[in-house]
Amino acid sequence: MKSHTMKFLAGFACASLFAATAAAQTVSIITTPVGSFSNSAGGAMAKVLIEKAKLRAVVQAQASTGFEETASGTADFNVSNSFDATFFATGTGDYAGRDASKNLRNVGALIPYRVAMHVRADSPYKRLADLKGQRVSSDFNAQKTIGRIIEAHLANAGLSYNDVVKVPTPNVVRQSQDFMANKTDVMFFALGSAAVKQAHASVGGVRVLEIDSAPDAFKRVQDLLPGAYVLRVSPHPSIEGLSQPTNLVGFDMVMVARAELAEDVVYKVVKALYENKADLQATFRPFALFDPKTMAKPLQSVPYHPGALRFFKEAGLLP
């Protein structure tokens, strides 16, 4: 009798566990392609949401930015940069000519993108200005924001795409492959990305080109990347291409959500990310730069999601 009872209880427990798992809310996180900075960050966040928020989080890597999927409701969250989210929401920048989107909501600021133009360690190019006449990835028809960021780096040196040899490519990962195949002379990527590490190992080392932080030179960057700022980054074993403190372009990684997503779901997501920096960092090292207390940073033209706002008020993150 006892044996039958134990078998029944064990079976009931398994069935209950299965039911609980099946009942868990599934959320999707759109990122840029596999190997990109936001994709790696998205993977770390999904792991935390699964383990801490008990949500079934699925990362969906896209060739493009994926804002359309988020705004239309076919995806729940999007991880991108602050200026691109603003451009999409307002129908400006690379989204000029499109209607403004009212369906994005701000979930929170995450980590700063520290971005740079990388050349081969043994190349003769020492400054961004040295890229004049060289082969530079262009077009980015599936990910136009990358072309804009590269254009901003060229503008910092008083150059434009008219001053270089343009090599068309669809997205940021493909341009890194072109660089490793010696089809281009420079590669754009965020520091700490898997693609930078791969390129560093493939071409015998990479080296970062410093930006000009003078006000007039950096204003040319901000004209193309609203909200960008200068970051001075020191060498670290996890960063390829830096041998001394170097001025680079920085801007915020942000998480946005579709407006209709349930308040409780967004609340759980924000709370889990806020409370688990160590777990995020353990999966993706750049989360060492994540400051949970700045998650409530406003995002131009993108209102807070009610679920995020609720947590920010409870945590005392709003003025």
Please give a structural write-up.
The protein folds into two domains: 2-111 and 253-314, D-Maltodextrin-Binding Protein, domain 2; 114-251, Periplasmic binding protein-like II (D-Maltodextrin-Binding Protein, domain 2, 3-Layer(aba) Sandwich), CATH 3.40.190. The protein is built from eleven helices and ten strands. It has helices spanning 2-23, 37-52, 67-72, 82-90, 144-156, 172-180, 194-202, 215-224, 263-275, 277-283, 306-314; strands at residues 26-31, 56-61, 77-81, 104-120, 135-139, 165-169, 187-190, 206-209, 229-233, 246-258. Strands 1, 2, 3, 4, 7, 8, 9 and 10 form an eight-stranded mixed sheet that branches. Strands 5-6 form a two-stranded parallel ribbon. β1, α2 (37-52) and β2 (56-61) form a beta-alpha-beta unit. α5 runs antiparallel to α8.
Could you name the key traits of this structure?
319 residues, alpha/beta, D-Maltodextrin-Binding Protein, domain 2, 2 domains, eight-stranded mixed sheet, two-stranded parallel sheet, 11 helices, 39% helix, globular, disordered N terminus
Produce the secondary structure layout.
Elements: H1 2-23, E1 26-31, H2 37-52, E2 56-61, H3 67-72, E3 77-81, H4 82-90, E4 104-120, E5 135-139, H5 144-156, E6 165-169, H6 172-180, E7 187-190, H7 194-202, E8 206-209, H8 215-224, E9 229-233, E10 246-258, H9 263-275, H10 277-283, H11 306-314
Parallel strand pairs: 1-2, 1-3, 5-6
Antiparallel strand pairs: 3-10, 4-7, 4-8, 4-10, 9-10
Helix pairs in contact: 2-9, 2-10, 5-8, 6-7, 9-11
